[in-house]
Design brief:
Strand content: under 5%
Oligomer: single chain
Radius of gyration: 15 Å
Number of strands: 0
Number of domains: 1
Helix content: over 70%
Number of helices: 1
Length: about 35
């Protein structure tokens, strides 16, 4: 039971990291082509 929240938190952290990286890539793309 204790491992469940840890897995959910880890998954959420990975999603937030992916979202941040994608957002940064979009900003760079807009800087170059905007």
């Amino acid at each position: 039971m204790k491992s469940e929240p840890r897995q959910r938190n880890d998954y959420g952290n990975r999603q937030t990291e992916a979202a941040r990286r994608a957002f940064e890539l979009v900003q760079e793309f807009l800087r170059h082509f905007g």
